[in-house]
Design a protein that fits this description.
This protein has 8 helices and 7 strands; from the N terminus they run βαβαβαβαβαβααβα. It is α/β, with parallel strands linked by helices. The chain has a single domain, classed as NAD(P)-binding Rossmann-like Domain (Rossmann fold). β1, α1 and β2 form a beta-alpha-beta unit. The longest helix is centred in the middle third of the chain and has 31 residues. The relative contact order is 0.14.
């Protein structure tokens, strides 16, 4: 398996899971465009598009940092066009950017509702839409194009909605993009899949949620390695799947997940949402 020479566009990749996926691809010599909002350092959150680019280059890849607000369709279109021009096309789109607000209905302000739907649903849809012409060209050139979205399997069980209706709807909106687009673009040979973690993942966003013990989490690298496996599969044969990280790894014979533990030896992990 290798992503050498692949041209990758990642949303929200200045830190956390997006950056981990970028660095895994960079080790093969991939070209990675990091499209995220953080250009200047934020005292509350580590990492910018520029520090991410430095890490990608240090890992052996080519990097293109692009400041992009996914709430602005013109910025999305410009970022995709800029990456395609710089790299000569796009082979892989990672819809990683996401906003989270775990509040009950009466405690969810309109601006937070709008942020989650603008970034999660609208951002995923419009970024995919803008990338499709380039992914179609990639398919025609036999370059195995993929869209991979970080979103959960769809489940209409009330327990996944009751504590944070707005957030669940926003994440499921991303998943519905996967469900529909995988079928829509099957004839074009463009794979569209989702990936979700079994356990909570130690990211800067998670650390901002009160009461979370990161010692019960795994590192973003478990998703990076899972994504790497998926992106190496044949796009015409692997589409419309809602993958879970440990299941992807197990399919390749990787069952010892100790190296992904934030605290070595941890047995009881905090489970993520949306998985029974």
């Amino acid at each position: 398996m290798s992503l050498q020479g692949k041209r990758i566009f990642i949303t929200g990749g200045s830190r956390g899971i997006g950056l981990a996926i970028a660095l895994r691809a960079a080790r093969d010599g991939a070209s990675v465009a990091i499209a995220a909002k953080t250009s200047d350092p934020n005292p509350k959150l580590p990492g910018t598009i520029h520090t991410a680019a430095e890490e990608i280059r240090a890992a052996g890849g080519t990097a293109l940092p692009i400041q992009c607000d996914l709430r602005d369709e013109s910025q999305i279109a410009s970022a995709i066009e800029q990456a395609a021009k710089e790299f000569g096309g796009i082979d892989i789109l990672i819809n990683n950017a996401s906003a989270i607000n775990l509040t009950r209905t009466e405690e969810t302000p309109a601006k937070r509702f709008d942020l989650m739907f603008d970034v999660n649903v609208r951002g995923t849809f419009l970024t995919s839409q803008a990338a499709i012409p380039y992914l179609r060209e990639s398919a025609e050139s036999g370059r195995n194009p993929h869209i991979l979205t970080l979103s959960p399997p769809l489940s209409m069980k009330a327990k996944w909605f009751k504590n944070h209706v707005a957030y669940t709807m926003a994440k499921y909106g991303m998943s519905m993009c996967v469900l529909g687009m995988s079928e829509e673009f099957k004839r074009d040979g463009i794979a569209v899949n989702a990936l979700w973690p079994r356990t909570a993942i130690d990211t800067a966003a998670l650390q901002m949620i009160p009461g979370i013990d990161t010692a019960t989490c795994r590192t973003p690298e478990i998703l990076a390695d899972s994504a790497y496996i998926i992106l190496n599969r044949a796009s015409k044969e692997c589409s419309g799947n809602f993958f879970v990280d440990d299941e992807v790894l197990a399919s390749e014979g990787i069952t010892d997940l100790e190296k992904y533990s934030v605290v070595p030896g941890t047995k009881d992990f905090l489970l993520d949402f949306f998985l029974d």
